[in-house]
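input
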Amino acid sequence: MVHRLLDEEQAGPEAPPPDGAARSATRPGPPAHTADARHLPDARHLPDARHLPDARHLPDLVPRGAIVPHAGYVYSGRVAASAYRHLTAVRGRFRRVVLIGPAHFVPVQGVAVSAASGFETALGVLPVDEAGRAAALEVPGVSRDDAPHEPEHSLEVQLPFILETIGAVPIVPLLVGRAGTAHVADLLDALWTPDSLLLVSSDLSHYLDVAAARARDSLTVTAILHRDAAGIADSDACGSYAVRPLLATAEARNMTLTLADMGTSADAGGDPRRVVGYASVLVS
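output
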């Protein structure tokens, strides 16, 4: 199930689907992958993401992208939903979603794009954008490889949110490993066109006590809001290899980053002595 913390024991990956087949959800079971997900009783779960009360009074934004957490709906769902709530305003505006996150389980050198025809969820299938995949493969260091996608949750957790708030738009699913910021920024620059929404999937600090996590995450969020790619260390965010290129691209394009929400797993009942931090940031 995807709503566990990231250090839980993982089963070995199954064989990836043949090229052209739809990728099945890797964590079947509630709350993430059954139809009951749409009937769960509180606003941390889908589809109530569209209707969360917003106490932050964000200005009217036209989001072009977002950084969103992926630990799972029980732990990070409220924080993620705070960003997705604002993405409902751009439903119908974009023809595809470029979705990039870290590969936690299978090492990747560079960036791996899935060969699947679509990604299945309990709420429907999101097709893979063929043109976007082809464009990605033209960038040096990008390979077609489903092995890292098969056990990975960092993209999968975002899919029901996308379906519920943006719709069944095609996606370009990308997993990034160790790769230079400039190289991945070149990839984002090629794919992040005016008709594309960019979502970067990342959590923040891992396994600090809650006070230390909040202090460290505040520094990380400050760097993000100032588009300071050099201010993001690998240990600041599990998706640092995707966050830094986003910030470099946003800096080059003079884009604005706005905090939607932040928190930790302790806010959802996790052990305050060992937490994971989360933030949702809108890019406009």
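quick obs: Residues 6 and 71 are 7 Å apart (CA to CA).
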